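Hi support team,

I'm opening this ticket because the web form for multi-chain structure prediction keeps timing out on my end. I have pasted the exact lines I submitted so you can reproduce it. The total is 168 residues across two entries, so I didn't expect it to be a heavy job. Is there a limit I'm missing, or should I split the entries? Thanks in advance, R.K.
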Amino acid sequence: MARLTVPRVHIAVLLKDEILDPQGQALERALPSLGFDGVSGVRVGKHIVVDLDDDADLDVRVTAMADQLLANPVIERFTYRVEG
Amino acid sequence: MARLTVPRVHIAVLLKDEILDPQGQALERALPSLGFDGVSGVRVGKHIVVDLDDDADLDVRVTAMADQLLANPVIERFTYRVEG
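Hello R.K., no limit was hit. The queue was backed up. Here is the completed structure from your submission:
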């Protein structure tokens, strides 16, 4: 049951704050008409979940993956967190 | 500077485990050829960030928003976490 202990990494890729996010804006405008008030700063991005075989060099591996494949570093930034 | 203390909510919307995720599969297949080995269980979804004006009924509001607008409950599930 070693699978239960592998690190699961959640990577969030979002447009940089200075880049216009039309999808987030559309969502933010839709919310009040659906009864959701007091919501601002809506941003929409990608959420990627990966299971790694072990946690060796985890930061290096995840950062390289995100930089090379998952995010466009010109317009996007990413964060990640490790679960389990 | 009250803005600095508003709750920022990160909502992750992913396809349910039993639903095929072609984008995740494509990514998983691409990783080894780019030198990333030992990666499995890749799933790709949406990551939505919202700032709420206060944390009253936070769970109720976020759950309703996700159920009604952000996720398709037939094929997707969501999780959220609060930052700040």
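A quick check on our side: The helical segments of chain A are 22-33, 58-70. Let us know if the file doesn't open in your viewer.
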